[in-house]
Specification:
The chain is α/β, with parallel strands linked by helices. 32% of the residues lie in helices and 16% in strands. α8 crosses α13.
Amino acid sequence: MTDAATRVLVVGPSWVGDMVMSQALYRQLRQTRPGVQVDVLAPAWSKPILERMPEVQRALTLPFAHGEVNLAARRRLGRELQADSYEQAIVLPNSLKSALVPFFARIPQRTGWRGEMRYGLLNDIRMLDKVALPLMVQRFVALGLGPGETLPERLPHPGLQVAQAQVQQSREEFALQPELPILALCPGAEFGTAKRWPPEYFAELAQQYLRLGWQVLLFGSANDRQECAHIRKACAGHPACIDLAGRTSLAQAVDLLSLATAVVSNDSGLMHIAAALGRPLLAIYGATSPGFTPPLGTRASLQVSDIDCAPCFQRECPLGHHRCMRETLPEAVADKLQALLAKTA
């Protein structure tokens, strides 16, 4: 086995935010292994994100539903990839099934953290010290180093790149006014309601910036339609408040977020995308903690609840009061956002 492999297959994460953070690994590989080719095997939805990472040569589709094993299909895929002669596989998820394709592809060095009894499937198994590596991004980058090698003092941040022609096309499709600043609001969170700042609070913030002459864009998937509709209704159908929930592809969401003058988001995949685009970002934390998956960027600010039961890391508030988010008042967020904009102006 070699720690300096120049043809590397990475088995990527299954969540948007994790996929964005994984770019730090690809950047580290490019910095430390001249001429390295990095291909990423990941779910089809991730392709628009991987295509905006110049460090990734190929985005390969992992054609399985979340949680699906399908051993025979994974074996066929592995045999197909064997022709690419990868020297190393880096498996970012900790599941057993995520290690199957590199094993079937007979990649000589198969690197990953110990998890779900993957002995034999992985032959470069690392023991994770959660105290030494508290951040997910550190754990990703560490797998690209040799065993026992120390992390660099400063890790590379994700940095998504957009094509201006595609950005302009999305701007025109949704009739954005180029002369007005944009406040992007991301009121959803796939993990559960505990991570969501109340939509009525987002609405107060939206109303404040509409009065200042800004455009307000409401981002989210089809699962976030209820929250976004609530915000737009509270803004009395203001023409400069545009509800995009479920109306954009992931590629369009990335391109439109690149236009934002400022972004306010729950702890979500869109938060990580905004940070990787270098937008001024205010991230609101309650049930979760920035101590594991903070937004990675120099223009991000945090609003973190300090009540005694936070963070609980539960999908729903186990005490039923949701104080961590309900006591994070719009006035405090507005003040933090104003300070962020002054700092990044």
